[in-house]
Design goal:
CATH architecture of the domain at 546-701: 7 Propeller
Strand content: 35-45%
Structural class: alpha+beta
Distance between the termini: 83 Å
Number of helices: 14
Radius of gyration: 36 Å
Helix content: 10-25%
CATH topology of the domain at 546-701: Methylamine Dehydrogenase, Chain H
CATH superfamily of the domain at 546-701: YVTN repeat-like/Quinoprotein amine dehydrogenase
Largest sheet: 6 strands, antiparallel
Length: 951
């Protein structure tokens, strides 16, 4: 019988506050931050996580995040080029858009929230129709990663060249260009060289007349948008030149000359924030025209006073000849005054102003740090006194639920209830049931850790050679033992819980016994304290990287920097075996519970399984693509786990030397591994600062099936990649490539395994329905030739079991299959159909139009097929017999829908008029007002006033 194993699956990831893969958003109370492939919602005041937006099976990390203007949805871009719309109230995906080939780097909603523009590393911009859940078109022209996108709406009442999608789109890219796109003609109308280096960030003010661009050289440039030129469109001036819509103004000086990674105007207040330094955000106060005029008047007055005093002839001259100008083009520095510099405690990944901030005490600013933390600062309003310079104060921070640096070591208590994770600077304890952080203690640069017998203490080995002993109950460090003079790479406790062994880079292996001693007077603890007493030392010829006792208490294995593993008798420390064969040092090893096998993993990417009887190498396995960091045997078995720098966790059979399962989920190298003492789960810790739990499921796993699945995935990926291969030259990131005007706009298509499967489902349904209709047609023809009293007339052919199960007619079944396909992938699924099946589908479109079934879907499919297969349809004379009745039926159905909508619209307008007349009558009765005043009152809406009730 084929051996089966039990499958392991990811259950949860924790230890993350905020990852550095994307920007973050803040609404004044809640912070929406990326956490690798998820979005976390934090209540910053309480420091609690309210929800996690997670889609099962999706592993690509979040790269971009933007809020809809209505606040009812969030658009999230991912590293695989997909964009998902999330509903914040339910934490579920509304729809998924697939169109980009690389990571999404910029997102923007239009003012109404009905269109979404996405920019990517593949240099293309795609416009999505959110209501219709479809891609409108793809814009090409940039030659490097898109860094920012902004919609520029044409004001109401102004002319537009098209009623389809009026407005303009402003985009910036790492190719140093700023481009303005006319969405009505779907072409670029102006290209501006914005900087000598990459343009990293762009923002537009509320009046939509001022653009700020930030470059890689730290230059903050301002540009003026000519609203009149936008309104008129592309027109030639008297000199024959095309009128420019974007004009340069000036540069704004900054306190630092680093790369400007983010620029943002406040949503309502007159503030501009610029991040050009790793740890600080510079905030400018935007002055009004009146303030600038007052400032100029004061400056003129001072110059005049100095001239009268006769202190300086130069000053006198400038006072008389200077022409004061209050226009922004001439005096950008006067309009934007440096206000406050917000300095965070770590490197800032992104920041965001609170979107609904009406606090009179100042403006709130969220900073998402690259060190897995978020902080909220209060920016005070400008003070009138000149003595006090305003300073930003930190009001909230969320940092306790995660490590600031890589998780370097993990260990589990003997009952698997508590997990300890150690990093450079902190040791944290986690409740494994709730995954909540229950203790945080400061420590040095931790390299290894383990629970001491009794599970009341934890020993941590550090880079400086110390062994730190922590008491869990009091969360305190009770003893620091200067055990070694160099890094303590490994510690292990003997199976009888009497001796601890430590191995270090100072070439010593030291043995320690446990001892309880009285607490000192200065210690916060009272009574007996656990301590370690040094008993023996084993001198080695090279640095010790790993030490391990055998479970039968007979042997001690020591791995050295010279790539060998030496095995000694642990009682006499007499040399027993030397295991050599690895090309690079052995980083970790483990001995099976029956003390028969030892498995070693090395920086040479190999895992070797050895017999402990004679030291013979049973098998050498090329296990990972990078260094194998840790290995551990499962309890009471020869199955073992390995983790590597290639971000993978692997499960192996140590007897058959086969890989059982490969688990991916981490986004950076995995440093640490801890196995449940009962064999129920595995915990891994990574450079991405997340801790993940992989639980054993009841589902059986067969190796042949797993290999077949892997091959299928490789085939599907290769097929999808070949279908999505694009030969266009525009925006391909190639220097000097010719820009083709015809390729500037294109359709939005991207084949995925889901769209291929959806296309296959449509084909299967068409084949099934066609066969059923053919059988029924043949039956009817046969019946028509038989006399009415013939017994054979009573026996129709058996129905297809699928149609019988659904109790559907063939045309209804095809519609049922097509309706099940998500709207976003329908067009890509239809592209899969060969022309023969397109002809077949046209017949069913006619039947659906005739019966009035889902006319919207019928119209959408028909127009797409006509556009895609126009040449074949025109050349195929048989199609005429299908298209003629289809035109007639579809027009009739569309006219009926139009009449229904017109009727409903008229009814709604009647209800509104009736409501308005009732309100006017009510106002006339209540107050003595004329009709105009009443109408104005109704138009502005009745605002509810807040009053104070007195007891």
């Amino acid at each position: 019988m084929v051996q089966s194993y039990l499958k392991h699956g990811p259950t949860q990831a924790f230890g993350l506050v905020c990852s550095a893969s994307s920007n973050s958003l803040f609404d004044g109370k809640l912070a929406y931050v990326p956490a690798l492939e998820d979005i976390l919602v934090w209540d910053v005041k309480k420091g609690t996580m309210l929800s996690m937006w997670h889609e099962t099976g999706h592993r690509d990390e979040v790269t971009c995040l933007v809020r809809s203007p209505k606040g009812d949805s969030y658009a999230v871009g991912y590293a695989d080029g997909s964009v998902r719309l999330w509903d914040p109230s339910t934490g579920s995906v509304i729809t998924t858009f697939n169109g980009h080939k690389k990571a999404v780097t910029a997102l923007a909603f239009d003012q109404a929230g009905t269109r979404l523009a996405s920019g990517s590393q593949d240099t293309e911009i795609i416009l999505w129709d959110i209501v219709g859940e479809a891609g409108l078109y793809r814009l090409r022209g940039h030659r490097d990663q898109i860094t920012a996108i902004h919609f520029l709406a044409i004001a109401e009442g102004q002319a537009s060249t098209s009623t389809n999608t009026p407005g303009f789109l402003l985009t910036s890219s790492k190719d140093t260009f700023l481009k303005l796109w006319d969405l009505s003609t779907q072409h670029c109308v102006q290209t501006v060289v914005a900087s000598h280096s990459e343009v990293w960030s762009t923002d537009v003010n509320h009046e939509l007349d001022l653009i700020f661009t930030g470059s890689g050289e730290g230059e903050l440039k301002a540009w003026k948008i000519d609203r009149e030129a936008l309104k008129d469109g592309l027109k030639e001036t008297e000199s024959g030149e095309v009128a420019k819509m974007i004009h340069p103004i000036a540069s704004l000086p900054l306190s630092s000359k680093h790369r400007i990674s983010q620029i943002q105007f406040h949503h309502t207040q007159p503030y501009l924030a610029v991040q050009s330094h790793d740890r600080s955000v510079e905030i400018f106060r935007i002055r009004s025209e009146e303030d600038v005029k007052k400032k100029h008047a004061r400056r003129k007055k001072r110059a005049k006073e100095k001239a009268e005093q006769g202190k300086s002839k130069k000053v006198e001259g400038t006072g008389e000849t200077t022409k004061e100008s209050t226009s922004m083009e001439d005096n950008l520095v006067d309009y934007f005054q440096p206000h406050v510099i917000v300095r965070a405690s770590g490197k800032i990944r992104s920041f965001d102003f609170a979107s609904n901030d009406n606090n009179p005490k100042g403006v709130q600013l969220l900073t998402a740090l690259a060190s897995n933390a978020i902080e909220v600062y209060n920016v005070p309003p400008p003070s009138k006194s000149k003595e006090e310079s305003p300073e930003a104060t930190r009001t909230h921070s969320v940092d306790l639920p995660g490590h600031r640096t890589d998780v370097r070591s993990l260990c589990l208590s003997s009952d698997d209830q508590i997990l300890a994770s150690a990093s450079n600077g902190s040791l944290k304890l986690w409740n494994m049931k709730t995954t909540q952080c229950i203790r945080t203690m400061e420590c040095g640069y931790a390299v290894c850790s383990l629970f001491l017998p009794g599970d009341r203490h934890i020993a941590v080995g550090t880079k400086s050679g110390e062994i730190l002993i922590y008491d869990i109950a009091s969360s305190s460090l009770i003893e620091t033992i200067q055990a070694h003079t160099a890094t303590v790479w490994s510690m292990h406790i003997r199976a009888d819980s009497q001796v601890l062994v430590s191995g270090s880079a100072d070439k010593d292996v030291k043995f320690w016994e446990f001892e309880y001693k009285d607490a000192s007077e200065n210690s916060p603890q009272s009574g007996k304290l656990l301590s370690l007493v040094h008993t023996r030392t084993l001198k080695m010829s090279d640095d010790v990287l790993s030490v391990k006792f055998s479970p039968n208490n007979k042997l001690l294995a020591v791995s050295l920097l010279d790539s060998t593993v030496k095995i000694f008798y642990q009682d006499t420390l007499k040399f027993f075996l030397s295991l050599y064969g690895h090309k690079l040092p052995v980083l970790s090893m483990d001995i099976s519970d029956d003390s028969k096998l030892i498995v070693t993993c090395s920086a040479d990417k190999n895992v070797k399984i050895w017999g402990l009887d004679f030291g013979d190498c049973h098998k050498s396995i090329f296990a990972h693509e990078e260094s194998v960091m840790q290995v551990a045997f499962e309890k009471d078995s020869h199955y073992f786990w390995t983790v590597g720098k290639d971000k993978l966790l692997k499960y192996w059979d140590g007897d058959k030397f086969q890989a059982i399962q490969k688990l991916d989920g981490h986004h950076n190298e995995i440093w640490a591994l801890a196995l449940s003492h009962h064999g129920n789960f595995v915990v891994t810790g990574s450079h991405d600062k997340s801790i993940r739990v992989w639980e054993k499921l009841d589902e059986p796993l067969f190796l042949e099936e797993e290999r077949e699945k892997e091959l299928e995935q490789l085939y599907d990926k290769g097929l999808v990649d070949s279908l999505n291969r694009d030969e266009h030259g525009v925006g391909a990131g190639i220097e000097g490539a010719p820009v083709s005007a015809a390729a500037e706009v294109a359709g939005v298509t991207k084949q995925t395994t889901e769209t291929l499967m959806a296309g296959e489902r449509i084909m299967e349904a068409l084949v099934l329905a066609d066969n059923e209709r053919e059988v029924m047609r043949e039956h009817e023809e046969a019946m028509s030739s038989l006399p009415e009293d013939d017994a054979m007339r009573m026996q129709p052919p058996p129905r297809n079991p699928v149609l019988a199960a659904y109790e559907m007619e063939p045309e209804a079944y095809v519609l049922h299959v097509v309706e099940k396909i998500p709207s976003t992938s329908l067009h890509d699924a239809l592209l899969v159909l060969p022309f023969g099946k397109v002809v077949s589908l046209m017949v069913y479109l006619n039947l659906w139009a005739e019966k009035g079934w889902n006319i919207t879907l019928v119209s959408r499919i028909l127009f797409f097929l006509l556009k895609t297969h126009h040449h074949q349809i025109v050349a195929n004379r048989i199609m005429r017999t299908t298209l003629m009745p289809l035109r007639k039926n579809l027009r009739a159905a569309l006219q009926e829908q139009k009449d229904t909508i017109s009727y409903n619209l008229a009814a709604l307008q009647f209800i509104r008029r009736k409501n308005n007349s009732e309100r006017i009558a009510m106002f006339y009765e209540e107050e003595d007002m004329d009709e105009e005043k009443v109408k104005a009152r109704i138009a502005e809406g009745k605002k509810r006033k807040r009053i104070t009730l007195k007891a």
